[in-house]
Every structure is written in C-alpha cells, then in structure tokens.
User: Fold this.
Amino acid sequence: AQSVTQLGSHVSVSEGALVLLRCNYSSSVPPYLFWYVQYPNQGLQLLLKYTSAATLVKGINGFEAEFKKSETSFHLTKPSAHMSDAAEYFCAVSDQGAQKLVFGQGTRLTINP
Amino acid sequence: NAGVTQTPKFRILKIGQSMTLQCAQDMNHNYMYWYRQDPGMGLKLIYYSVGAGITDKGEVPNGYNVSRSTTEDFPLRLELAAPSQTSVYFCASKTRGFTDTQYFGPGTRLTVL
Assistant:
C-alpha cells in the first residue's frame, strides 16, 4: 500500500525566507507525486506534479519540488516566501493503475511579516 | 466551464437524518471521487467512480452510498447521519490519463449535531 508522510503539521517562515515543506512517500511501484495547495475555505488546487520525466518539477507561484528516489522524498520549496503563500499544503501519491490519490496529513504554512 | 461544483456549501443535520451531497462536473471527465477532510488527517477517499454506472469503495466508505447514472453527476448519500460524519466533503474529477490532475470542487461543510 502506498503512503505519504509530511514532516511538520505547521511551518512558519518570515516573508522573503526560504520555504521548505517535506514529503516522504512509500510506494511499491514507481510513483506519481503531487503537491496541492488549499487556501482558506477553498478546494484543493494543483501546485505541481512528478510523472517520471524530469526529477526537478516547477509549478505555479514560484514553487518547485525535486523527486529523490534514493530518499523516497518529494520536498516542496520556494526561494522567497510571500504573504499570499499562507495556506495548507498537501502531498499526494498515486500509483500507475488505481488512479487514486493517497494524501499526507497536510502542512499549514504561516508567513510572518 | 464551471469545473466541479458542489451543493450545498454548508449544512447542519441532526443525528439520524439523511441527505445527499451533490457534485457535478462539466469537463466530461470519466473519473470522479469523494473525499472527506478532517483536521490534521488530510483527505480520505470515500468512494470513486471510473465512469457512469461504475462505482467502488475507497478507504472510508461506511455510512455513505453513491451512484453514477450520468458522466456529469456523482451524488454522495448519507444515511442515518452520525456526529462522526461531521467533516468537509470534497468532490473531484479527472480524465483517464494516469498522470492527469484531479480537479476539486469548493467543498461542503457538514455538521451533524
């Protein structure tokens, strides 16, 4: 069975600082990996996804993530945080057959002025 | 395109009541999903459908039922509501491709008292 672990349920950074949200996955087959963002009282929106092409994936709003098979990780980064980045972020894994997503528990990102 | 729409946005039920959460998509997507989101737990899959007339259980199906009579609609039925079903419910849809993105609706916040 596949699973996702997001390290840190709450991350707080200063505006302009590096954002690093951690995600580790477990999968018996090559995974597809996704990062979604949820702004308050809204649905989830795709930030980026890894689909076995380039290991460094660039997404919307300046976010990127690197797939590291040896570390079973897919950490999300942004060089400089903006106040508008405050939201909850979810990492998810999907296998190639079931087309179902398994989500991590989420990380709430707070940006301090 | 309206994308994925959900109604109602909010609902309060009494224990033992029943209701149907509506979900519709206008993107001609084959796959549709129902999730529930509880604080600190991420999203859990309740039911999903790979096309009209075909549904299957997800991780947490107990207390829920679904049907899929058309490509566009995927209602979720709660029978005999219980306080444990207090949650935010999200519907999502996607095309057949393994790497394709799931698109989420805005959610329904349900409280069972």
